[in-house]
Amino acid sequence: MKIGVLGSGMVGQAIASKLVERGQQVMISSRNPEKVKDFAARVPGVQMGSFSQAAAYGEVLFNALKGEATLEVLSSVDAGSLQGKTLIDISNPLDFSRGMPPSLYVCNTDSLGEQIQAAFPQMKVIKTLNTLNANLMVNPGSLAGGDHTLFMSGNDDQAKEQVRHLFGEWFGWRDIIDVGDITTARGTEALLALWVRLFMKFGSPNFQFKVVR
Fold it and tell me: Residue 41: is its pLDDT beyond 90?
């Protein structure tokens, strides 16, 4: 499968590396071409391109951009490249303007996931992977044998089932809870307020939520 990864930070690189390892065709994009060039040199098989090129290339897209950059970047992409595609949205609306811990610049009655879906109704936005560290996203088995929970929000049931299947095949996820439509991203994005506090408490991002039921 051809995958477009928007963003080349820690999350984008972790996603792209794992997908190539799993035999997928990947194009990664960034505001910083040199950063992508360096990464592509370290990970043979990864292609590099502009945001528009990665969006056109991917059958499925990953949004690994900073929350504040997401709408701007997607708006710069040709609308036809987004038509009908599933966008796996990992971004969070984190505001670091007052330092640590960050606050959320969208919350309570709205979410970044909802804003993306409203701005780009031609896409199937699936909010997921936004409540854990990049390494655990692609290797859940490295913590507690993978016995922890991933959340998923979105309006398109078929797209959610596709993502569930792909995450099991690509990354080994076993416990994925479909929380509901895209408005439920308000809850998962709000979890970041707790996640950051736990990170500060533990001094490590190697933890994850588990729903016991």
Answer: no
